[in-house]
Amino acid sequence: QDKRSKAHATLDLVEGYLKEHAQDEWLISGLAGVEEQIGGLLSKQNEIIQKEAAQEAATTALELATKSLGDCQKQSGIRKQELEDALKQLQLGKDALCQILGDRLLREYRTEKETLLREMAFLAKIAELEDHRAKLEDGEPCPLCGAIEHPFAEGNVPVPDETEKKIDALSRLISKAEDQEAAIKKLEEAESLARKNLTEAEKLESSAANDKKAAEKALAEAKDGLVKLRAEFVERRQAVSTKLQPLGITDISETDISSLIETLKARLKAWQAQVKKKADIEKQIADIDSEVKRLDAVIETQSTALTEKLERLETLKKELATGSEERNGLYGDKIPDDEERRLHKAISDAEGAEKRVRERHNELQQKWNTAKAHVESLKKRIDRREPELRRLGTEFSAGLAPVGFSNEEQFLAAILPSEARAELTAAAKDLD
User: Fold this and answer.
1) What is the DSSP string of 161-182?
2) Is pTM, for the whole model, over 0.70?
3) Closest CA relative to residue 33, chosen from 271, 232, 244
4) What is the tens place of the pLDDT at every residue in 100-145?
5) Contacts of 188 (CB under 8 A, 6+ apart)
6) Contacts by 225-234, CB closer than 8 A, 24 or more apart
7) Which of 100, 85, 84 is CA-nearest to residue 180?
């Protein structure tokens, strides 16, 4: 009864739990669908995380592209300024060359210098012939050229100082112009390099501008995609929340999504455990009730049996008293126990003798059965060999006449005894 009371108390607790958490029964059929929805929600959350990472990467890429574009624009400005400076320097160099040359060309100054140099050489030659001038005589041929007339002999020899001064001035001008032309050439090379650098910088700037546009486009796409994903995520989360409201879950935090399914599984497991526990307790109570009924029946049966045994005991007591009187009447002065032991021994000896006789009978019966089976086997073998024996008998009878015997008896009378045949066989073996 105490065990049954405890079982009922436990059952009350279990039923209280099941009543309090009755909504968890829905998880038996609904958990699979919720689990799938939560899986989709987690997948969408992972997509959002990836998109956020992509947006962050796109933002970083845009910042880098913007910085790169700014650097390229700054570099392009520097290259433009360098080209402008190179052009200015080149123009100044050309202007300086124009100031040096005036309205003439450098080759004209070089031609003039070459002309003056030839003239200078001619004057020098004339100076070398001064000694010969003194020896020239009018009307006499010149020992160098053979001329009769000597105009230089009549006047003074020209002085080359003015020519040398002109040549020096021209040399300085030409040298200065050539230096300026060399400087201009370097400035042209610098201008060409600056133009080339500017072209490269403009290409880099254009590429950086394209990268920036691509980064802006990627960032815009990432933002749009993230907005859509978040909207889908909110919609799915609301759908799951609506489905789980009967379970007392009104809101789902983004951080609790991954653990929500485990929580629901734990609640379902607890519900099923309580249901199983209830069934076990109800079965236990039913078993206890059944056992109580069985014990009641056993008690009743045993009570009836006890009454019967008590009645039987009274009868046996009466029979014992009657038997004792009869025993005393049978044995008289003899000791009843000794007489009973003697009689029991006689009975035991008779039973032993009967057992030995039975065993001997069984043994003889088994031997008889064996002999009977052997006889049956021999009969079957004889029956199988009878045709052959008849054939052999016929052949034997037919073979007697040719050897001089009329019948089998005559043949048997004529043959040697078995002992003589054995001796002859032994002698034959010895001879061999």
Assistant:
1) HHHHHHHHHHHHHHHHHHHHHH
2) no
3) 244
4) 777 888 788 788 878 878 877 777 766 666 555 555 555 566 655 6
5) 90
6) 225/51, 225/54, 226/48, 226/51, 226/52, 226/55, 229/44, 229/47, 229/48, 229/51, 230/48, 232/44, 233/41, 233/44, 233/45, 233/48
7) 100
